[in-house]
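Session log. Operator J.P. requested a structure for one protein chain; no other inputs attached. Running the standard single-chain path with C-alpha cell output.
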Amino acid sequence: MQKVYGIFGFTFKLKLSTRPEKFLGEIATWDRAEAQLTEALDWFTAQGNAKWELNPQDGAFYGPKIDITISDALRREHQCATIQLDFQLPEKFKLEYNTGEGAVKNEEGKDSVSHYARPVMIHRAIFGSLKRFFAILIEHSGGKWPFWLSPRQVMVIPVMVGANDYVEEIQKLFRAEGLHCDIDIGPNTMPKKIREAQLKQYNFIIVVGAQEKETRSVNIRNRDDKATQAKGELIPLNEALAKMITLNKERRGDNVLA
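Structure written below.
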C-alpha cells in the first residue's frame, strides 16, 4: 500500500473492523485473529506511520478485516483497499496443508506421517474497483496526470513550416523510447496551438524553430512551472529526451526534469 499509494500521491488511513453481531465461527478464533491484526497494525504504526483506528463490529461475517481509506486533494476519504481474514471458506471446502511437523521418511523417501492444518484465506485488494480508483485519481489530480501515467506527455509545435521536419523527427525519437509524443503541424497559429496544448494538460510543450533546428535543441514549457510557460527553457534535444526517459521510469509525482 505504501508503494502503490505513494506512487499516485495518496495518503491513507487504517481501520481495524472487528466481529459483527452476526458472525460465523468460534469467538475464540475471532479474538485470536483480531489480536494478531492489532499486533500487525501496532508494528506498522511503530515504523513511523499514522495511527490506526478501531472500527467496532464492522467486520465481515466470515472474519475481521483491515479497511483502508485514501484522501484526495480535497481531503475527502474514499475506501479502496481492504485486507480480510476468512475462516469459513477453508472450513467449508475442508482445505488442509501439510505443515511438515512430525514427518517420518519411509523407504521411498516420502513423508509417511505428517501434521495437517487448516489455512486461513486472505482477501486482499489494493485498488479495489479499478474504475472507481481512477475516478478518484482524476479528481485528485484535477486532470493533471503525473508524467509516467499521462496519455499526453509531450506536444511538439513548430514556429514555422520550415521546422516541420524537425518536429516530426523529435516525435519519432521520443516515441521510439516509449513516450507519448504528439505534434501539431496544422494550419492554426503557434499561439493557438500552444493554448490548445495547455488546455489539454500536456506535461510538456516543446516549441522549435530555425534556431532550435540548427542547434539540435528544444524550447520546453513545463505545465507545472509558471517560469517556463511564457518563454520556455532552451536545452539540447538529447538532454531533454534523456531527462524525460528518467522521469518516466522513476514514476515520480512531480513534473521536474532533474
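Operator note: Residues 2-141 form a domain with the BirA Bifunctional Protein; domain 2 fold (CATH 3.30.930.10).
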